[in-house]
């Protein structure tokens, strides 16, 4: 993924969009800091629909014997 300064991205926006649609996203920097990413709408949709880790765990086909037994002992004491 290439990096491009904001002022250059402004003048070449059409080319950046064409590249992103073609599968080559770009990072836009401002004052030497990464600020934004240009990527295709299709890629954004794919990434925005990734389920959270919690939802993945809840959807996992686990049987009761798949998990280790719960430790019911006393909690460890900590000092502050």
TrEMBL record:
Its biological purpose is as follows:
Antitoxin component of a type II toxin-antitoxin (TA) system.
Say which family it is in.
Belongs to the phD/YefM antitoxin family.
Record-given protein name: Antitoxin
Name the InterPro entries on file. Antitoxin_Phd/YefM, YefM-like_sf
Q: Where is the composition biased (Polar residues)?
A: 71-80
Chain residue ranges for the region called Disordered: 61-80
Per the record, the domain of life is: Bacteria
Q: Which SUPFAM superfamilies match?
A: YefM-like
Naturally occurring in which organism (per UniProt): Bradyrhizobium archetypum
């Amino acid at each position: 993924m290439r990096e491009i300064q904001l002022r250059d991205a402004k003048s070449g926006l059409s080319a950046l969009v064409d590249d992103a649609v073609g599968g080559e996203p770009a990072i836009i920097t401002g004052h030497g800091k990464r600020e934004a990413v240009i990527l295709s709408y299709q890629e954004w949709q794919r990434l925005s629909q990734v389920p959270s880790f919690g939802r993945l765990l809840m959807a996992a086909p686990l049987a009761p014997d798949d998990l280790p037994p719960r430790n019911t002992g006393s909690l460890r004491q900590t000092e502050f």
